[in-house]
Amino acid sequence: MAAGTTASGGAAPPRQVDVLIVGAGLSGIAAARYLQTRLPRKTFAIVEARAAMGGTWDLFRYPGVRSDSDMHTLGYSFRPWLGEKSITDGASIAAYVRDTAAAYGIDRAITYDCRVLSAAWSSADATWTVATTRGAITCRFLFMCSGYYDYGEGYLPKWQDMQAFRGQLVHPQFWPERLDYAGKRVVVIGSGATAVTLVPAMAETAAHVTMLQRSPTYVVSRPARDPWARKLYDRLPARLAHGIVRWKNVLQSMYYYRLARRYPDKVKAGLLALVRKQLGPGHDIATDYTPRYNPWDQRLCLVPDGDLFDAIRGGRASIVTDTITRFTETGIALDSGRHLDADIIVTATGLKLQLLGGVTITVDGAPVDLSKTLSYKGMMFSGVPNLAHAIGYTNASWTLKCELTARYVCRLLAHMDARGYASCTPQRRSDDEIPAAPLLGLTSGYIQRAAGVLPKQGARAPWLVHQNYARDTAIMRFGRLDDGVMQFARASAAAHAA
């Protein structure tokens, strides 16, 4: 039985565990469940910096917040999603995470308000010493499930005269609980997933919502309900139906992604044709809906049941493609000479990436610069022992890769136990020249801004990040653990003496 499951959320964390999981969001709960079922003798604990579990889905509270992936793939393979909607709201996702943790007793393993400050690896002891705001914890393996962006700070450009605006200026990451926008004129700055979510939700009661974008993104409508899912759930056991729908959606998304990369011009034309059909006549498709890049150079923006297009057709919302000259007392002055009047301005301008929650990592006293490392199978770092991190796909649901990572960590730990190894370290051979490329291949602004601090990927396996769930499933479930790159070591004499 995992020792971590005996710790209450309000108590101090245990002082020593086999595996320490950092983060109690989707990936952290998945990591705990795999440890429970595959390595039941391992002790584990979860530390969470915030006061509640759920990660992103507990933090984000802005109007309309929802998934942009279907819940049959964003949800867990081991716990079927039974909700009516496949594309669902953030509160329902947070509840699903909480219910899953409670169902398996994982909630008792979590210590809240416990921020990790640093983690120091000792090769002599084959142990991590993790400094937290609630004391030090030692562990044999450190599993970082804290996402990849800064929870404490979003990205906010510095526009001229921002302080001049007399209305309310709001960032979606820190949405005021009692913000009243009914009957107000709202400008949402941005064109990404957050913006296309906010606009139709706020347009339900606002006087008007304007989405101000510097350049367009691809917007795709998708049914909020999956008709296949309902039919299968009515006829089959939930686990079987869930598995079928999950793989149907995985293969469908893989097909469309490959199609977009192979035939970008044809896919672009098809996407824009769908936009024209959704909007009807009288809209400037070339200016407001045609991106300067190919499909999947950046993530596509999903709108369930075409809600954004409905708001625009109904006159409750509009899109303006322009650049900001300055803020004024009553709104925003644009380079075109136009002025957008606003009572509320929402800066949906993106995230600030931060891998490992900003934790300082050292190995035998030497600080680790993640930007100088290579990503091993998209889950570990070259030269860093006994540490994995969960990071999802850029072209599919986050949880798909996070579950594969959790499964692989369990394989690694079982392999080490069976052979008496104390550590596992992905190592670049000194004579092996590996061309490095950015870890995340998208051209999105939030990724490009962080390119200098993220690890790199290599040009070939196991340093290559595939962004392909089917291929990763084969590699992570059945691939060799002792692959010539992963270096295993037994405990040192010092560790035995201890």
UniProtKB/TrEMBL annotation:
Coiled-coil parts of chain: none
Native source species: Acidisphaera rubrifaciens HS-AP3
Methyltransferase among keywords: no
Keyword Flavoprotein: yes
Annotated InterPro entries: FAD-binding_MO, FAD/NAD-bd_sf
Keywords in alphabetical order: Cell membrane, FAD, Flavoprotein, Membrane, Monooxygenase, NADP, Oxidoreductase
Protein name per UniProt: Monooxygenase FAD-binding
Co-factor(s): FAD
Subcellular localization: Cell membrane
